Structures are given as C-alpha cells and as structure tokens.
Amino acid sequence: MAEVQREHAERQYAGELAALARDDARPRPPNWRLSPWAVATYLLGGTLADGSAVTPKYIGDRRLIEIAIATLATDRGLLLLGVPGTAKTWVSEHLAAAIAGDSTMLVQGTAGTSEEAIRYGWNYARLLAEGPSEAALVPSPLMRAMREGKIARVEELTRIPADVQDSLITIMSEKALPIPELNSEVQAVRGFNLIATANDRDRGVNELSSALKRRFNTVVLPLPDTLDAEVAIVQGRVSALSRALELPAEPPALDEIRRIVTVFRELRAGVTADGKTRLKSPSGSLSTAEAISVVNSGLALAAHFGDGRLRAGDVAAGLLGAVVKDPVQDRLAWQEYLETVVKERDGWKDLYRACREHGG
Asked: How far apart are CA 148 and CA 154, in angstroms?
C-alpha cells in the first residue's frame, strides 16, 4: 500500500495518544477517549509520568484551549474564529483526534455546500428502484458523528449559505436529526458535538443567524503575540512537513526563519519592530501559515536546485507571492518596504538583492 502524503492526526500521533490514555486517570466525559486534562496536554505538550514527551500542537494561550475543550464537554458547539492562518483547522482536527479518535467527520463549507452535505443525501438509483429506505440513505459526516457519539467538524461555516447553515440549529439544540421521508430521526449518542471554524475576515459574507450563534461558544484564536512564539510555530511545522515530504535539504537556519517572520509581522502591523517606521500594509493576511509555506517552498528550491541550504534567493519568490496579492497597491507597499527597511537593515542586503532580482 502506497504511503499517504499526510496522515490524519489520530494516526500521525497515535503513539502520543496511546501514552496519554495509559497515563490518564482523570474523569472522562461520556465517550471521550481522554480526559479534558489529557486533551489539553496533547494539544499544548508536556511530559508524562513515565517520561514520555508529548509535542505541542498549538503554541499560544493555554486558557483558550482549555475553554475550547470545556465547551465540547457541554451541550454547546465550539466555533473557532480568527483571521486566516491562526491554526483554526489545525486545532479543530487535533481536538477531534484526541477526544473521539477520529478527525475525519468533516464538512468543508463553500458557497455551494448544500443541505444534503449537512444532513443526509440519497442513493438515487436505490431510491428510484425501492423508494425511501434506510438502505438508500447516504449519511452526512454529521449524521455519522451523531450515531457514533463523535466530534463532527464544519470548516468555513460563514462561507455556507445562510439557509443551509440553519439546518444545524435542530441538530445542535435537539441533538436529533429528523428524517421525514422515513418518518424517523437520528438521535445523537452521548459524546457527539460540533466544531466549526470561521474566518473573521469573511464576516458578513454569510453572517450566522442569532439562533445559530446561541448554539455555539466562540473562541477567537489570535495571531501569535510575539516574534519568538511565531518563529517557534513556523520552525516546528516546517520541520514536520519537511520530514513528511522527504525534502533533501538542511533544516533551515533559525535566523532565516526569524527574518521571514519579521517581514510578515512588520507588514501585518504596518510598523517596524522598533516602532520607528510606519509602513503600508498589504491586502493579504500574511499569516503564520503563509510564512510556513514560504519557508517550505524555499527548502524545496534549495534541495532540488541548490546546495540544500536555504538562502535568500530561495525565499525571495515566495515572499513576493505571499505579499503581493493586488498587483498595484500591494506591489507599491512591498517596494516601499524593500527600499526603506530591508535595504537599510544590517545583515539583510542579500535578501534585498534577491527580492529585487525577483521583481520586487
């Protein structure tokens, strides 16, 4: 069997989850694989009594993660809100993996998401041949999660049309999914809950109804507070992705990662780190996830077309692509940043030259 490119969290971290389960003597909510304490340790990292190390999956405010976990132990759903690249999907997947041992019960929200994707559909060949029946029913991921007492996930909830969003209200308030065609319903098994994510830059695209909002507890995931925290996140994710992709390159020097993250943070904030120079902010989010992508694409260039060592020339094109989304306004902001900040900063001349060569 061919190796998959990316394992689901519950498989990738199966060893850590098993070690936590062995060490976990605390009370567990119905149908949970781990106690809330162990779920928090899985996400935030720690050392167990037997010396086993649990790697951090999320670097940030511990209280936010504790609130998210506690919410899922109640009858309210969890809405993870934040700008792009704040690890909403990542946290959602790892919460489901730790709590239910299954992160795959997922609905990807888009403008074309139908009510069938939320509730259930039909095998139309069987429906025409036999009429409505349990055998002809095609359960949605939410229906399967309800039947099995697991965590369902809805990504990009605010991209889903409002009338389709509201099909979640009965599921979340009554913990039941009516099937009028069969004069029956699916009742949620204990342990069922829902994690939804939404990009707060999409607010207003398909605003949640007040009735649906009341069914969620909202946790806002912020961008990393400090440069060091963001560098640690990028370094950890780049290391994991490089192993998964088997990139034949040296691990990137911490200084190079720090330089890329500094560029993103300064442009995002509209001011240099020392507070002395005001900057134009580009239209893009310049998220931590994009910084990870820039480093990874640079590593691929260095591995396959260089000497395996990440250099300024390997990241310049990725930086340009991440910053310049609008070819007019963003390009002006980027060129101003290059000339007023990068060009003048000690030790950054190589990055300035590489960016200019790539059309900066």
From this structure: 17
Residue of 97, 202, 112, 196 lying closest to 153 (CA atoms): 196
* Rounded Cα distance, 55 and 45, in Å: 5
Q: What is the pLDDT tens value at each position of the chain, 360 positions in all?
A: 567 788 999 999 999 999 999 999 999 999 999 999 999 999 999 999 888 899 999 999 999 999 999 999 999 999 999 988 889 999 999 999 999 999 999 999 999 999 999 999 999 999 898 889 999 999 999 999 999 999 999 999 999 999 999 999 999 999 999 999 999 999 999 999 999 999 876 555 788 899 999 999 999 999 898 999 999 999 988 888 877 777 777 777 888 999 999 999 999 999 999 999 999 999 888 889 899 999 999 999 998 898 888 999 999 989 999 999 888 899 999 999 999 999 999 999 999 999 999 876
Amino acid at the residue 346: D
Predicted TM-score (pTM) of the model is: 0.90
Nearest to 7 by CA among 297, 295, 244: 244
C-alpha closest to that of 165 among 188, 198, 201:
198
The stretches of 166-226 forming alpha helices (DSSP H) are: 168-174, 210-213
**Cβ-based neighbours of 162, under 8 Å, separated by 6 or more:** 206, 207, 208, 209
In total, the chain counts a number of residues equal to: 360
